[in-house]
């Protein structure tokens, strides 16, 4: 840092934030460790990649990139609205769902507001609120990795500004049931905004999925459902996520706090085709869920304790600081993620890759 840089220029709320634990890029991996990455299993990416139709759509759209994209993403908004049984005015797109988490907090959080989430959790659910001076209560999962319904209901007695959590949970993997979701909503104050992050919803068994948006609307709670094209749809590199709200007023506000051109033209073209290619999505989900169960069983056979996952990853207890194991695996060309959130520093998250990648990981382990 320059000696002349003003010490109080950066807001303390921002200076005190932890650094987001992003995955390691492949070129950086090779430069640092001097070996090829044989299994990149740290960022929950799809080993089958995107739908070929999505790739073709991006190639076609590339000819028009000299024009600004539609700031309102009208065509894609209409398609999502139809699927969600709502109107386009209730839908918003962003540069990944992380972009929308930021837009949501910018629109709603004031200094000293209170936010409730779960633990362990997706870091931006916590950091994004802290950035604006909010205090965050993190409710830990139950010992058996069931959702902490009683703990969340107790935390909601404080009437927080926002309740935000994911299901299936990232990084742990459990999914909340419809009845548990309804129980939590019944405990929430009518003025508490409920943000339900469904980034991994496609991997939940069909008989355990439910329409969270309809339930939020039915119960009268202000709510936002978040989804992404980065995981099951294999479009992590182009960055496109979306939110569906129970009230147009929230979307109107978030459109003001989001970048005006939040999604690039290639991403919109890819997402529009990806969501229509249901056959490709089915292949992704079938492989991920089958391999997830196989990897979890193999880890258990090796003596590791695993959280029950309904996503495309497995969270397991390494029995010691996970960062040590992760570094050793990197020397063997395997990338997984050591969790850095207390008290889960002994836990690691491994993405479910291709069968070959998963075997490489298990053999290296």
Automatic annotation (TrEMBL):
A single GO BP term for this record reads: L-histidine biosynthetic process
Protein name according to UniProt: Histidinol-phosphate aminotransferase
Q: Which residues form the Aminotransferase class I/classII large domain?
A: 40-365
Q: To which protein family does this belong?
A: Belongs to the class-II pyridoxal-phosphate-dependent aminotransferase family. Histidinol-phosphate aminotransferase subfamily.
Q: Which reaction does it catalyse?
A: L-histidinol phosphate + 2-oxoglutarate = 3-(imidazol-4-yl)-2-oxopropyl phosphate + L-glutamate
Q: Name one Pfam family in it.
A: Aminotran_1_2
Which Enzyme Commission number(s) are on file for it?
2.6.1.9
The domain of life is Bacteria
Keyword Transferase annotated: yes
Q: In which pathway does it act?
A: Amino-acid biosynthesis; L-histidine biosynthesis; L-histidine from 5-phospho-alpha-D-ribose 1-diphosphate: step 7/9
- Transmembrane stretches, by residue range? none
List the HAMAP family. HisC_aminotrans_2 (MF_01023)
- Annotated signal sequence is none
Cofactor(s) needed:
pyridoxal 5'-phosphate
Which NCBIfam families does the protein's record reference? hisC (TIGR01141)
Q: Which UniProt keywords apply?
A: Amino-acid biosynthesis, Aminotransferase, Histidine biosynthesis, Pyridoxal phosphate, Transferase
Q: Quaternary structure?
A: Homodimer.
Q: Which residues carry this modification: N6-(pyridoxal phosphate)lysine?
A: 231
Q: What class of enzyme is it?
A: transferase
Q: Name one GO molecular function term.
A: histidinol-phosphate transaminase activity
Has UniProt tagged this entry with the keyword Cell cycle?
Answer: no
Matches recorded under PROSITE patterns: AA_TRANSFER_CLASS_2
